[in-house]
Amino acid sequence: PMDLSAIKKNIESGQIRTTAEFQRDIMLMFQNAVMYNSSDHDVYHMALEMQRDVLEQIQQFLATQLIMQTSESGISTKSLRGREANRKQDPNEK
To answer: Rounded distance, CA 19 to CA 58, Å?
Structure first.
């Protein structure tokens, strides 16, 4: 069985180290809740609602990570280009 306390324990112990691993376990928890509770049970509906919210949050997190990686790559590239331009302007170099 997978629940939030098990997920927390796995994060703290290092068994969950990536967003994909977290997503796998949290989705398993939601699937179990939906599978083992009938559609007229509150847990069933709460699991579906939480699943939608968590997926949205994970997608936002991944998008932010991508933006950060892209901007860090751009900064590295710009700083390298600046160094190359400075080298070319040095009259002592041939």
So the answer is: 8
- Where exactly are the structural domains of the chain? 4-89
Q: According to the model, what pLDDT value does residue 87 have? A: 59
- C-alpha 63/C-alpha 16 separation (Å) is 20
What is the pTM for the complete model shown? 0.70
Smallest Cα–Cα separation from 62: which of 73, 54, 50, 52? 54
Which SS3 state, helix, strand or coil, does residue 3 take? Answer: coil
Domain 4-89: CATH class, spelled out = mainly alpha
**Distance (Å, whole) CA 55 – CA 24:** 11
How far apart CA 85 and CA 63 sit, in angstroms, is 33
Contact of 22 with 8, CB cutoff 8 Å: no
Residue corresponding to tokens 């901007």? 71
